[in-house]
Amino acid sequence: MDLQKKATSPRKGGGYFISFEGGEGAGKSTQVNHLAEHLRQDGFDVVVTREPGGTAGAESIRHVLLAAGTQGYGPAMEAILFAAARTDHVDRLIAPALKAGKIVLCDRFIDSTRVYQGTTGEMLQGYIALLEKIAVDGTIPDLTFILDLPAKEGMTRANSRRKPADIIDRFEKAGISIQENRRQAFLKIARMEPGRCHVIDAARPVEIVAAEIAAISDKKIHEQNP
């Protein structure tokens, strides 16, 4: 398979979309960069992005979302802000990249909103689902890696990696019980959507995790474009 070298598309009508999900300290950003390097070495055109953010407009909303002062807005307002950022992100970056036949790797996407805002109550889940449908307009990841790590270990890792000048966002400040509830919510999504989601044991060494992710990605992309 020689997709980008032949200027063909990894999937019908567009590129290939991979998202990375998981709790704090699971190593999502690290694994995004490892996979990007692996795919580029194979000749693919890769776009690396993140949420909230990825475009100028979405990055502006990111600063609002992560600020401690917005905590009083509540999950419903948070979901609206995430949807606004995601709409701009999809319209201006992700969808055009996929249409151009590129592989997009995104550090967090729809599943993080489902978990961080959607675990507040069943009524809000329907509200978030509607916002999601509007924001993504059919642009759903082809493949999602959920990096799984016990919440306590994840926070220990996150704290050890943090530099003195780093600002701790309000989602990272949540207690261990809340972090563990989020972990279980991610695992529930994986059970509900096994075709898209792959749970990865993130407690292992970085290189071993990266090798597993690369192998799964290669297999999935090939299956879609034999």
| Total DSSP E strands | 5
- Bin the helical content: 40-55%
Query: Would you tell me the overall average pLDDT?
Result: 85
CATH class: Alpha Beta
Instruction: Encode the helix/strand succession as letters.
Output: EHEHHEHHEHHEH
For the largest beta-sheet, the strand count, sense and barrel status come to: 5 strands, parallel
Q: Count up the helices.
A: 8
Low-confidence stretches: 1-13
Name the overall outline.
globular
Alpha carbon gap, first and last residue = 7 Å
**Rounded radius of gyration (Å):** 17 Å
Measured by DSSP, the beta-strand proportion falls in 5-15%
Give an overview of the whole structure.
With 226 residues, this protein is α/β, with parallel strands linked by helices. The protein has a single domain (14-224), classed as 3-Layer(aba) Sandwich (Rossmann fold), CATH 3.40.50. 53% of the residues lie in helices and 12% in strands. The chain is built from 8 helices and 5 strands, in the order βαβααβααβααβα. The protein has helices at 28-41, 56-66, 75-99, 110-116, 122-136, 151-161, 176-192, 206-224, and strands spanning 16-22, 46-50, 103-107, 143-148, 197-201. Strands 2-3-1-4-5 form a 5-stranded parallel sheet, sandwiched between helices. The longest helix has 25 residues, at 75-99. The protein is globular, with a radius of gyration of 17 Å. Mean pLDDT is 85; it is low at 1-13.
